[in-house]
Each structure stands twice: as structure tokens, then as C-alpha cells.
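Supplementary Methods S3. Complex input for the S-adenosylmethionine-bound model.
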Amino acid sequence: MTSAATSRPHIPVLLGAILERVAPVRGVWIDGTMGAGGYTRGFLEAGAAKVIGIDRDPLAHEMAVEWGAEFGARLELAQTVFSKLDDVAQGVDGVLLDLGVSSMQLDQAERGFSFMKDGPLDMRMSQEGRSAREIVNEDSEEQLADILYLFGEERASRRIARAIGKARELSQITTTGQLVEIIEGVMPRNKKPGQSHVATRSFQALRIAVNNEFGELVEGLQAAERALKPGGTLAVVSFHSSEDRVVKRFLRDRAGLSGGGSRYAPLQEVEAPTFELKSKKAIGPDGDELAQNPRSRSALLRLAVRTEAPARHVTAAELGAPELEGRRS
Ligand SMILES: C[S@@+](CC[C@H](N)C(=O)[O-])C[C@H]1O[C@@H](n2cnc3c(N)ncnc32)[C@H](O)[C@@H]1O
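Predicted complex, serialized as C-alpha cells:
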């Protein structure tokens, strides 16, 4: 998991790489993570008949009313989670997921996503449900340590969880600034240039927990499988290796490439592949994109084409997605 991933570029990364590989862009696409609409606009301009822009953040929809006006009925909006994208449309030509938090969300101090801006400890993309403040003040130290370790790969998870436990005995932790101070109090200062801030992993972990991001990813991939028509394309852009690992495992399994296991194991029925991979390896930015947009360096794109085989179910555990105890699917 890279620290650079906390900061997202405004420019849609790997858009050119996607358009080039699916050309000619036609039919109906679902952008499951519309945000400020970089990919939605890109697909509409490249020739998609229609794009359905999904985002759980009401603000993304407020903004889309303005920038999307020029596309008229070719842009349809749906404020929901991408794990339910097949409730919005079926038989689509493409599904795009650009995972994570948007730079727009990070930039707004009042959303509480950034350790660099003091604001309320919130982090809810959909602006409803349990906030980071509730998790930080109400979960046990053990639960907090699990969140930091599983979702942030934070090795000092127990130390930080203990410090949070101690601090909240004195008063509620209500701001991002307070949390940063608590973490800084128990972590050695990073001195080397380019090293990430000591709160990076903890903030990432809390955000992932607040928004159930791995649960959404596991369900979202399956929803895309149900919604795509044969020949339709699934494109997933991720910035964290832990997210990409889940996408990779899903697609390799669906393409029938997940390895045969032991040759002494009982023979299992081979299920028909539901996807064909566009490339076995993840696609990264090329030299031009890197030069124009250095923050694209950790982006990974996976592309696959839907076959005619029926969709099937897979659990988070089977995809190796990190899960908290008691929340297994
Ligand atoms: C990385 S940003 C995408 C930015 C977008 N591609 C753009 O061009 O601005 C991810 C966006 O997806 C939304 N999002 C994240 N998880 C989601 C989910 N499970 N369902 C729906 N929207 C989600 C976030 O609110 C955020 O706006």
C-alpha cells in the first residue's frame, strides 16, 4: 500500500489507456465512481451513447447537474453505492470503477478525510452512517487496532490504538487535528524527505472502515459481472496494491486462471469463465502520462471483457479482501 495513494490527481488517470483499448466506445457505460466526472465526460466525448454516473456522495451529484447539462439525456445520474449498480441498469456495454477517495473530497477540510487539514472527524463519502468520530470514540482499542492493521497495514496499530484509548478518557476526539496530534505523540518523526506523514496509514484505514471500501469492492465486482452484457468491458483503476490484489484475484478466478491447486486434490468441476482478460498484467501509466501527471505513478488498471457464462457468487475471504471479525460475508 503506498502513501502516495492518499493524494488523488484531478486528471482522470489512464483514461487514454482505457479508451484506446475499448475503441470504438459505444453504447451504455456505468461510471460507478463519478466524482467530478473525469471519466464520465471522457466516455461521452469518445462516443458512448449514454453514461450512468453513480456516486454515493451527494456533492458529486450537485456538481454534475451543472457540468453535465451539456450532455442532456446522455448523462443519467444515480446516487447510490456501486455494489448495487446492477439495480440501476442491466445489459450495459461497460463498467468503470476508479477506486478510493477523490481529490475533491480530500480538499474539503469539513469532510474530515485529510490529516493535512483540520476539520471534523467525519470521512463519510455518502454523508450518512457511522462517522470516523464514532469509530474512534466508541470502538474498543482492540477493534481500532484491527482497523489500523488490516486496512492501513499500520505496524504500530496497537500503540496508536492505546494512545487513542488514553486520550479519549480525557475528552472526546472530534477533529482530524486532535487525531493527528495523538498519532504524532506516539510515533517517531519521519525525517527523510519524501517519507509519508506518520498519520497517513491510520487515516487511510479509518476511511476504508467508515466507507466499507473492501466490502463495496467485493460486491461491486460481482454487481458489474451481473450488469455487463456479453462483450461488455469492466475497467478498474486502483491506487492501492491491496485493492488491486482483490481485483486481480477476482478477474483471474473469473477468467479460469486461478491455478489448479494440488494435482493430488480431488478434481473440481471447472466453471465457465465469465471474463476474458485484456491483459494478464495490470496496466500502468506510460512515460507521457507520468511526465504530465507524476501522481499517476501508483495507478493500476485492469480490463476484462464479459463472456456469456452466468455470473456467480464469491466471498470476500475467497478474494483475500481484508475483513474485520464479525463482518465476514
Ligand atoms: C477516486 S474518486 C473518482 C474520481 C472520478 N473518477 C473523477 O474523475 O473525479 C472515487 C469517487 O467514487 C465515490 N465512491 C467511492 N466508493 C463508492 C461506492 N462504493 N459507491 C459509489 N460511489 C463511491 C467517491 O465518493 C468518489 O467521489
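The beta strands are 28-31, 50-54, 75-78, 92-98, 228-238, 275-277, 300-306. The pocket of S-adenosylmethionine is lined by residues 8, 12, 33, 35-39, 54-57, 60, 81-82, 98, 100, 102, 125, 216 (CB under 6 Å).
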